[in-house]
Structures are given as C-alpha cells and as structure tokens.
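comment on this one:
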Amino acid sequence: MLPRLPAVTRCLSLAALLVAGPATALQLPLPPQGEDVVGQVRTLTAKYEDTFADIGTANDLGYLEMIAANPGVDPWLPGAGTEIVLPTRYILPPGPREGVVINLAEYRLYYYPKGEDVVYTFPLGIGREGWGSPIANTKIIAKTPNPTWTPPASIRAEHAADGDILPAVVPAGPDNPLGPFKFTLGVPGYLIHGSNKKFGIGMRTSHGCFRMLNNNVLELSTLVPVGTPVRIINEPYKFGVSGGKVYLEAHTPLDDSGNPSVVDKHTAVINALLKREDLANNVRINWDMVRDVVAAEDGLPVEIAVPGAASATVASELPPELQ
C-alpha cells in the first residue's frame, strides 16, 4: 500500500500558521509543466470556541470540504485540543489553465491570471436542490460594485409561500443577498457574488448562482477583468502528477443539476483517468489505494501510482470488482 500523506510532509505546524497571519486568498504558485498539484495540507489545533464555519472562513475553505477532510469531528464543537485538517492542497482541474474555472464537485473556484505563474482559489456556495448551477463555457460580461437585487418572480413566490414577502428591489447594503460585489456571467440569470450570510459558502445553498465570502469576492473583483473566460465543470475525480508520483483527489459526485449523484463511482473514476492520455496507459495503479480514496471522498490528493511503470493498459489491470 502506498502511504496516504505522511504528516511530516503534508502538515504545517500551528506555529507556522500563526506566523503567516490572517488568511487572505489562497494564492499558490503554479507547478512546473507536466505537474498538477499545488499547495500543502495543513493542520491546526482547535480552541474551545472554534467551529468549522469559523475555521473555514479564516482559511478560505468551505464547510463541506472541512467536514470531508475531518471525518468523525463535530463541526460545531470540535473541542479544545482537537487537531483539525485544513485541506489546502489541490490537484488543479483538468483542462486549460486560463481564466476562471469552477468545479461544482469541489465547491471551488480557480483563477489563472494571464501572464502570471500563480493560481488563486476560493470556496463557493452553489445551487441547491431544484436550483442547480449550470455546466457551461461562458465569460464575465459585467462587474458591479454594491449591487441591488431584483428577486426573480420564482424566488419571490418561493419566499411568499413561507410567509416572507420580498420587496421588488433590495437596495445595496448589509442586507443584500448579493453582498458587496457581483460578476455577471454570459449564462443568463447566473452570477458570481458575495453574500449577506457567512454560513453556506462551500455548500449547496444558492438559487444556482455562485456565492463567495465577501472578502473573497472583493479581492477577485480587483483581479478579474470583464471578458475573462469562465469554464464551469463537474469533476469529482481529479488525477495529477507531482514530483514523479501520480495522485488522485476524490469528492462526492454531483449530477448535472448539482445534486448528489448515484453514479457508479468506480466507473466514473476510471473514466476520469482515461481522459488523462498522458497517464492512462503509462502508470501502474495501486487499485487498493484507489478504492480507499474513492470511498473516503475527503478531497485530499493521495498518491496512487508512479508514472512510466505500466506493463499493461488500465483496463486490463483492473481488479474484477472494478471491471
């Protein structure tokens, strides 16, 4: 069995986190050509008043990714002295490293500024059941500070059914659900915006738009120009190479409407590997480790193979239960 992630290499001490100071956007250097893994997993020791929502907000992490990386830990009362994993290591999404890339299965946005060897990444809230976020290739068509909100008739009706009568227009300010800034996408009716609620980032809570922490959307507003391409994908299984090793990162699959999917997970992960033509027939996979990673869905990149060691195709190597 290959090791999951030795603590000595995957974690930074709490002291290192404190030296780093208050968290801002996760700005990470891009890896060399042919490699895909950025960042490092970190840990901190919880204080008695900590919650996953607070820890996530302070470290640009979403609520569900905190839960996935810390199975068995109470998200509302982790307890003083509990070691908390911060899943701040990522395999970059498949496809071109340009513009904005949103991966629904990760509840996360990546931004590649043109001409710079860095990537920014932020947690997102996405569409909840019945209000799925789209999969699309689009672009930023407008940027609006201090936006007003004109609730669509469908949302006004939904609120009215619960006895909550929304005004025709909600003015800019602390009670505005769009927060301090919005990006308008080329897909009609969809935005990237802030929020008047801290809770819900990194979850399925919106009416299809993409919610960000307010400090994050304000930072993104200074980075992303109008016309920037936006690619919205849904990739729960990401393969990547780093330091001569192959990694797999697994998240809970979502269907095309943004709802938890009942797909055959093993077939899905194999299909994701086959899309990586540079890896599919050029690695010897540790299928026991793949099975563990797929079962865990903890969002942490885990070593599952070494490139250039294959003696057969991926399909012929599959154990019987994965064929």
Observations:
- Residues 16 and 211 are 30 Å apart (CA to CA).
